[in-house]
Design a protein that fits this description.
The chain is mostly helical and 280 residues long. The chain is built from eleven helices and no strands. Helix 4 packs antiparallel against helix 9. It is globular, with a radius of gyration of 20 Å.
């Protein structure tokens, strides 16, 4: 399961490292960029609880977690490809050719179709990334004995860090020097990332053998699907005080983190170095 977290974080870092620049050079107002990034929090609130509960309560020939990992990898690869070619599709559907060929001349609001494709792909990509997070973490508990969970979680954190390092690091490299047939750095990065996602999930699916799920008889009814979301407010109120403090720390940490990574790259490029988004 470690490669699954690596590829998810790799895709997430590549997505966030290039998204603000791509939105801005397609003519999106800077004040609207943060609205596009609502995809992450909203998909996290909706998708992870539902997929987590769903994967807990099914059994297929592929296991409980593997179907979600495979479907998530395919969705991630497809939407990265869609985002990478978003401006080209927008031009094909009626946007000015400058939206894809001469982005430095693009004005705000000039490429609505391109922005529509980019935003849809960005949101679907975030939903797909969140869909694999829960099953990937649950797979760790499924295949490792309890006395190895601490080491497993440490490896999870390590692979997440490596995924961030590779994703953000490749974003700073001009990949078209090595993969010139992709034309733009965005396309090269996203296609390489999509291929890596598919490769990692194939590796996980082949090497990990999930134990057969045996439902345990219990008087407590299982909560499935959307019903999980209905229980969240009550679960928060009834949770121990120490957990509420952890929730508060997570909330404030991610609030600051999102505010930083959404605008930091654009701020440094435009305000510190005096560049424009399309200059890379």
């Amino acid at each position: 399961p470690y490669t699954t977290l690596f590829r998810s974080q790799f895709a997430w870092a590549a997505q966030n490292g290039m998204a603000t620049k791509t939105f801005r050079e397609a003519g999106m107002k800077s004040s609207v960029v943060s609205l596009a990034f609502l995809a992450g929090p909203i998909s996290g609130i909706i998708v992870q609880p539902i997929v987590g509960a769903w994967s807990d309560n099914i059994q297929t020939r592929l296991g409980r977690r593997r179907p979600f990992l495979i479907a998530g990898a395919v969705a991630i690869a497809f939407n990265m490809l869609l985002f990478a070619y978003g401006t080209e599709l927008g031009v094909a559907w009626g946007d000015p050719s400058a939206c894809d060929e001469n982005k430095s001349s693009v004005k705000e609001g000039q490429c609505p179709r391109s922005l529509g494709v980019l935003v849809v792909a960005f949101w679907l990509l975030d939903f797909a990334l969140n869909a694999v997070q829960g099953p990937a973490r649950a797979l760790l508990a499924d295949v490792l004995p309890p006395d190895q969970h601490e080491v497993g979680n440490a490896w999870f954190a390590f692979m997440i860090s490596i995924g961030n390092l590779v994703g953000y690091g490749l974003g700073s490299v001009d990949l078209t020097d090595y993969l010139s047939f992709f034309v733009t750095n965005l396309r090269a990065l996203y296609i390489v990332c999509g291929a890596a996602c598919v490769g990692c999930v194939i590796l996980t699916s082949v090497t990990i053998h999930e134990p057969v799920f045996v439902p345990q008889s219990t008087s407590v009814p299982r909560v499935r699907g959307v019903a999980v979301l209905k229980k969240l407010p009550r679960s928060f109120v009834q949770s121990p005080k120490i957990l509420k403090r952890c929730f508060a720390v997570q909330c404030t940490t991610w609030f600051a983190f999102f505010m930083t990574f959404i605008y930091y790259a654009a701020f440094v490029g435009e305000s510190v170095y005096g560049g424009i988004a399309s200059d890379g």
